[in-house]
Design a protein that fits this description.
Strand order of the largest sheet: 1-2-3-5-4
Radius of gyration: 15 Å
Number of helices: 2
Structural class: alpha+beta
Helix content: 10-25%
Shape: globular
Length: 141
Protein backbone atom coordinates (compact mmCIF):
# COMPACT_ATOMS: atom_id res chain seq x y z
CA UNK A 1 0.00 0.00 0.00
CA UNK A 2 2.67 2.48 1.03
CA UNK A 3 6.13 2.94 -0.37
CA UNK A 4 8.64 2.85 2.47
CA UNK A 5 11.77 3.62 0.45
CA UNK A 6 11.87 7.37 0.99
CA UNK A 7 14.73 7.78 -1.52
CA UNK A 8 12.56 6.74 -4.46
CA UNK A 9 10.54 9.33 -6.31
CA UNK A 10 6.83 9.26 -5.67
CA UNK A 11 4.51 8.13 -8.49
CA UNK A 12 3.23 11.09 -10.51
CA UNK A 13 -0.41 10.71 -9.42
CA UNK A 14 0.44 10.98 -5.72
CA UNK A 15 2.27 14.30 -5.74
CA UNK A 16 0.32 17.16 -4.20
CA UNK A 17 -1.48 14.89 -1.74
CA UNK A 18 -1.04 14.77 2.05
CA UNK A 19 2.17 13.00 3.09
CA UNK A 20 2.12 9.48 4.51
CA UNK A 21 1.53 9.47 8.26
CA UNK A 22 0.60 13.16 8.30
CA UNK A 23 -2.25 14.21 10.56
CA UNK A 24 -4.84 16.68 9.33
CA UNK A 25 -8.36 17.74 10.17
CA UNK A 26 -11.00 16.84 7.62
CA UNK A 27 -14.74 16.83 7.13
CA UNK A 28 -16.91 13.74 6.77
CA UNK A 29 -18.22 13.91 3.19
CA UNK A 30 -20.27 10.69 3.18
CA UNK A 31 -21.04 7.71 5.38
CA UNK A 32 -21.16 4.20 3.95
CA UNK A 33 -21.68 0.80 5.57
CA UNK A 34 -17.96 0.04 5.16
CA UNK A 35 -16.56 3.39 6.37
CA UNK A 36 -16.60 7.15 5.89
CA UNK A 37 -15.17 9.32 3.13
CA UNK A 38 -13.27 12.34 4.41
CA UNK A 39 -12.65 15.60 2.53
CA UNK A 40 -9.47 17.44 3.46
CA UNK A 41 -9.46 21.23 2.95
CA UNK A 42 -7.18 22.23 0.08
CA UNK A 43 -7.38 18.84 -1.68
CA UNK A 44 -9.86 17.66 -4.30
CA UNK A 45 -9.42 13.97 -3.50
CA UNK A 46 -11.35 12.32 -0.66
CA UNK A 47 -10.00 9.40 1.35
CA UNK A 48 -11.62 6.48 3.13
CA UNK A 49 -11.60 5.76 6.83
CA UNK A 50 -12.47 2.05 6.78
CA UNK A 51 -14.86 0.91 9.51
CA UNK A 52 -11.93 -0.87 11.19
CA UNK A 53 -10.03 2.46 11.42
CA UNK A 54 -12.84 4.55 12.96
CA UNK A 55 -12.23 3.57 16.57
CA UNK A 56 -10.12 1.33 18.77
CA UNK A 57 -13.43 -0.27 19.78
CA UNK A 58 -15.44 -2.49 17.45
CA UNK A 59 -17.84 -0.46 15.28
CA UNK A 60 -21.04 -2.06 14.02
CA UNK A 61 -22.61 1.02 12.44
CA UNK A 62 -20.50 3.80 10.92
CA UNK A 63 -23.34 6.32 11.34
CA UNK A 64 -23.16 5.85 15.11
CA UNK A 65 -19.57 7.16 15.10
CA UNK A 66 -19.54 9.97 12.50
CA UNK A 67 -22.04 12.25 10.77
CA UNK A 68 -21.79 14.01 7.40
CA UNK A 69 -20.27 17.46 7.95
CA UNK A 70 -18.51 16.48 11.18
CA UNK A 71 -14.90 17.63 11.62
CA UNK A 72 -12.51 14.76 12.46
CA UNK A 73 -8.77 14.26 12.86
CA UNK A 74 -7.29 11.71 10.47
CA UNK A 75 -3.89 10.15 9.87
CA UNK A 76 -2.86 9.22 6.33
CA UNK A 77 -2.07 5.48 6.46
CA UNK A 78 -2.20 4.62 2.76
CA UNK A 79 -1.58 6.29 -0.60
CA UNK A 80 -1.51 4.27 -3.78
CA UNK A 81 -2.23 4.33 -7.48
CA UNK A 82 -4.51 1.58 -8.73
CA UNK A 83 -5.65 1.55 -12.38
CA UNK A 84 -4.79 5.27 -12.76
CA UNK A 85 -6.89 6.11 -9.68
CA UNK A 86 -5.53 7.48 -6.45
CA UNK A 87 -6.61 5.63 -3.31
CA UNK A 88 -6.18 7.38 0.03
CA UNK A 89 -6.61 5.49 3.29
CA UNK A 90 -7.08 7.30 6.58
CA UNK A 91 -7.30 6.32 10.23
CA UNK A 92 -9.25 8.08 12.96
CA UNK A 93 -8.29 5.62 15.70
CA UNK A 94 -4.60 6.54 15.31
CA UNK A 95 -5.37 10.14 16.32
CA UNK A 96 -6.81 11.56 19.54
CA UNK A 97 -10.04 13.10 18.29
CA UNK A 98 -10.01 15.80 20.98
CA UNK A 99 -6.47 17.08 20.53
CA UNK A 100 -5.23 15.77 17.15
CA UNK A 101 -2.32 14.02 18.91
CA UNK A 102 -0.77 11.06 17.07
CA UNK A 103 -1.54 7.85 19.00
CA UNK A 104 0.85 5.81 16.81
CA UNK A 105 3.83 8.18 16.48
CA UNK A 106 6.23 5.44 15.33
CA UNK A 107 3.71 4.21 12.73
CA UNK A 108 4.09 0.64 13.97
CA UNK A 109 0.41 -0.22 13.61
CA UNK A 110 0.08 1.51 10.24
CA UNK A 111 3.17 -0.22 8.83
CA UNK A 112 2.11 -3.61 10.22
CA UNK A 113 -1.30 -3.31 8.54
CA UNK A 114 0.41 -2.35 5.28
CA UNK A 115 2.62 -5.43 5.47
CA UNK A 116 -0.34 -7.72 6.10
CA UNK A 117 -2.10 -6.16 3.10
CA UNK A 118 0.97 -6.55 0.84
CA UNK A 119 1.49 -10.18 1.84
CA UNK A 120 -2.16 -10.96 1.15
CA UNK A 121 -1.70 -9.70 -2.43
CA UNK A 122 1.23 -11.96 -3.25
CA UNK A 123 2.92 -15.13 -2.09
CA UNK A 124 6.28 -13.64 -3.05
CA UNK A 125 8.39 -13.05 0.04
CA UNK A 126 10.54 -9.98 -0.52
CA UNK A 127 12.57 -8.12 2.09
CA UNK A 128 10.56 -5.09 3.07
CA UNK A 129 10.99 -2.22 5.51
CA UNK A 130 8.16 -3.58 7.64
CA UNK A 131 10.15 -6.76 8.35
CA UNK A 132 12.56 -4.69 10.42
CA UNK A 133 9.76 -3.01 12.34
CA UNK A 134 8.06 -6.31 13.08
CA UNK A 135 11.27 -7.66 14.59
CA UNK A 136 11.39 -4.65 16.92
CA UNK A 137 7.66 -4.70 17.65
CA UNK A 138 6.75 -8.42 17.90
CA UNK A 139 3.64 -7.64 19.94
CA UNK A 140 1.98 -6.50 16.69
CA UNK A 141 2.30 -9.91 15.04
Amino acid sequence: MADFDHDQQEPAGLDGLPAMYSIVKGEVASVQTYGAFIKIPGYRKQGLVHISELSACRVENVAEVVDVGEQVWIKVIGREMRDDKVKLSFSMKAVNQGTGKDLDPNNVIAVWKCCVFRESLSNIQEPHACDILLVHAPYCV
